[in-house]
Amino acid sequence: MHKLVSVQDLSFAYPDQTAKVLDHINLTINLGDFLLIAGNTGSGKTTLLNHFKKELTPLGNRQGHITIDGTPIDDLSKLQSAQTVGYVAQDPQVQPVMSKVIDELAFPLENIGCPSDEIERRITELSNFLGLDQSLNREINQLSGGQLQLVNLASVLILRPKLILLDEPTSQLDPLIAQNFLNVLSRVQRELGITIVLTEHRLSTISGLANRMILLQHQTITFDGSPTDGIKEMFKDDRLTYFIPSIPKLFLANQITSNPLPISVAQGQAAIQAANLKFIPTAKAPVHQSNNEHQPLLTAKNISFTFDGTRNVIDHLDLTVNRGDWLAIIGKNGSGKSTLLSLLIGLTTPQHGKIRFEQQVVWKIRTADRIKRISFLSQTPSLQFTANSVRQELEVQANQLKLPDPAQQIKQLVAKFHLEKILNQNPFDISGGQQQLLGLAIALMAKPDLLVLDEATKGLDPYTKVMVGNTLKEAQQNGVTIIMASHDMEFCAAFADHCTFMFDGHLNTLLPTTAFFANNFFFTTPINRIVRDQVPDALLVDDLTLESEGR
Amino acid sequence: MKRLPLQMTFFSQVHPVASTIYFAELMVCLLLFNHVTVALAEIVGLIVCGFYYLGKRSMTQQLKFASSFLILILFFNTLLNQKFQPILWQFHWGFLTYRFSYSAFLYGVAMALVLISMLFIFALLNVILTPNRLIYVFSPIAPRLAMLVSISFSLVANFILKFKRLITLQKTRNLDVSSGSLLTRTKKVLHIFEIMLQDSLSSAMETANLMDARGFGATKRTHYRSYHWQSSDLVFISFSSLLLLMIVYIRFLNFGWSRSVANFTNVFHPADLLPIGFLLVLFLLPILSEGIYRACTN
After folding, report:
1. Nearest CB to A106: which of B157, B168, B224?
2. Do B222 and A108 touch (CB under 8 A)?
3. Which of A13, A139, A211, B31 is 20 to 30 A from A274 (CA-CA)?
4. For the ranges B80-84, B240-244, B284-288, which has the lowest average pLDDT?
5. Residues near A16 by Cβ (< 8 Å), separated by ≥ 6?
6. How close B213 gets to chain A, by Cα (Å)?
7. CB within 8 Å: B213 and A56
8. Do the Cβ atoms of A111 and B153 come within 8 Å?
């Protein structure tokens, strides 16, 4: 097999840090590989990935050798590097520099000095291959996150590189769009033979597409093999267990031997049938009924909102949220969820209808009073930051809220959200996941009556997601009412009390979480899909108990 | 009447170098005259073009902004020109006196119209000279600068969007720019700018790295879009240049210009008709050309 990337004894530490991020890494990537790099947050996945692209190699203390297609990476000219290795970043918004799709695709070719007719030929060919031909003259800022990430991929692919690196490319996308993006990536690898290396937390789809997986633990590679074997290896680590997709987890947790380990819904159903597995619902303690149930905290009546006067983004919407409830609003990107949340907390005023928080019209509550009772975490937490360090950020919020013992409160939140190591860092420089945690800490500081969250789990690894879910559940039990817009079915299934679907500017009937997912066919959890014939109410691995394993 | 898509208009198809020269000519004209009626003729020409090329909605918004801008410039001009006659109204506050004179008022109106016209020219330039056309024009002179100017065009749009979002979301941190005294509001807006800068810098670093990763600066850049001179481009730019020469000659004869604010005693001077006529033709040249273009198309 042709060796495309060779890493020999690579060790790396960031400047002024003694602890190594990568320690004696040895790795060979072959031409045509679809390689998944898995590991905990902070395990060095992105650092390793960035070492394969000369322009993105991090500054620090480095030992070892990396060669790309036989050439040491430092000897690659800028031109060679651009034409050999492509890179797609996590945040789709940071890559584009031109205003139109066609210009964004032409940009890298103009950079390498391609003649005009060659540029045109490549754009024609690639846009037809990726289905972008109808979008070429669209403005970049009018594209959805999924379309933008596809343009970013196209803008790298147009240079015809041998290797494409992707750093959690779907973490900002909703699940259906993420799946489409990964399918395109798989086509690129299968049909064009381009080598793909990506880091990813959502293993459910990618494990079925990648032919190889490496596991980074304790700063080094602890596993290198097929994704199914890698998942089995992850099951041995307490923290990495959270990363395992629910279908293989069901089989591993119940010690069901199935070869190969099922990953997809179809494989899971086939394995259940083949082994004649019988599941029953897990007995659970009865849910505690709050005394405050059915006391409305927030009511929205007949609200309509439009940005441009041509189309109602919110259209005659009614909603009542009871005190102590946790409501999840599910819907695709662009369905109006974020606009609705902005209206519910009084940041935006609807053209029609009223929204009352207790008895007050929400947008008439003074801002200083409102932040004590209603907290909000937007899907871009950095736009809510205001200080130069994480510590200051928390102190500013404590001052605004006039908390009685700010130092103690800050200490508790820092411990709860594991912010100790980044306290002195600039909040705009920390990772997306850390920004999300800081945003949550700020939002919870007020101990609000109502907590409104817009994609609270975006960019978080599965372990941190569960930690966040448990913290929010604890807050809910202490009297906080939660409204959350999310794409994350499994998170909603695990933590929300009620769910609803946002569509065409309004909300469907609010249903208890189990009823909501059990009635859904497309928007439901993988577990519900594979066992709905046996246990219609099962949504998560913990909802199932293996009754018998017949042959 | 349904508006013609911009890319179907004659003006948007003019060779980028020709349209750059034309916009430069318009700017020169704005600086040549300072009489109110002449400035009015220039702005009327630009408003007509604005409605045609930018659309009713965009132009109405710009006119709303322009009206408040006009009042601001007018106020400062009358404030800075206190020694002229005839005084229409005056106001005493302690030892300070504010005199509102007719001459200063007329001068202020003329200056405001010229400045607003300049903004309208830039608004038109922004849609006609799209980023790739700008790169094409300026690349031979300063390739990197041309690229950066073009990128900054798309960044400005993102900047405005982000600024609006910041103003909304910072309310959740009790930073509400719509409440408090003028000083408090100003401080809050400045703080929002500071946040904006921090956020933009952090993403700009990543964008720059990703540009590098796609070969920016690797070799001499080429251009995907190539533009060829048509005879219509030559006719358009020759006619506009001829008009400019005539207008410069008229200015040389001291038409449409007064040296001192004290000379601003009348709104209309009969001698202004000459520059007004030529300027209207030059400023409305794209619209006139559209008519000819329509007549010549199948």
Report:
1. B224
2. no
3. A211
4. B80-84
5. none
6. 6
7. yes
8. no
Q: A111, A96, A158: which is closest to B223 by C-alpha?
A: A111
- How many other CB atoms are found less than 10 A from the CB of residue B280? 16
Instruction: Give the pairing type, strands A212-217 and A220-225.
Output: antiparallel
Write down the mean pLDDT value for chain B.
88
Please tell me the predicted confidence (pLDDT) of residue A153. 95
Query: How far, in Å, are A231, A343, A381, A449, B149 from residue A363 at the CA level?
Result: 49, 8, 21, 16, 40
Test B217 with A156 for CB contact under 8 angstroms: no
- CA nearest to B160 within chain A: A141
Percent of chain A exceeding pLDDT 70 equals 98
SS3 (DSSP) at A450? strand
* One-letter-per-residue 3-state SS of A171-208: CCCCHHHHHHHHHHHHHHHHHHCCEEEEECCCHHHHHH
Nearest CA in chain B to A393: B173
> Measured between beta carbons, which residues in chain B are less than 8 angstroms from residue A164?
none
Query: Is B148 domain-assigned?
Result: no
Mutation to test the A interface, candidates B169, B214, B216, most A Cβ within 10 Å = B214
Q: Which residues contact A187 (CB under 8 A, 6 or more apart)?
A: none
B96, part of any domain: yes
Which pTM value belongs to this model?
0.81
Domains delineated in chain A: 3-244 (3.40.50.300), 296-520 (3.40.50.300)
- Are A367 and B214 an interchain contact pair (Cβ–Cβ within 8 Å)? no
Integer-rounded Cα Rg, in Å, for chain B is 23
Domains held by chain B: number:
1
Mutation target among A59, A80, A111, A378 for the B interface, most CBs of B within 10 A: A111
In the sheet with A163-167, reading across from the earlier edge strand, the strands are A85-88, A163-167, A195-199, A34-39, A212-217, A220-225
The 3-state DSSP class for residue A318 equals strand
ipTM at complex level: 0.83
8 Å CB contact between B175 and B191:
yes
B218 domain-assigned: no
List the single residue in B130, B175, B198 with the smallest CB-CB distance to A428.
B198
In single-letter form, the type of residue at position A389 comes to S
Higher-confidence residue: A493 or B264? A493
**Position B69 in a domain:** yes
Nearest to B157 among A116, A141, A371 (CB): A141
**What integer pLDDT is reported at residue B202 of this predicted model?**
77
- Check pLDDT > 60 for residue A291: no
Is there a contact between A252 and A513 (Cβ–Cβ < 8 Å)?
no
The rounded distance, in Å, linking the Cα atoms of A110 and A113 is 5
Which A residues in the span 458-517 are in contact with B, Cβ-Cβ below 8 Å? none
Which residue would you say has higher pLDDT here, B287 or B182?
Answer: B287
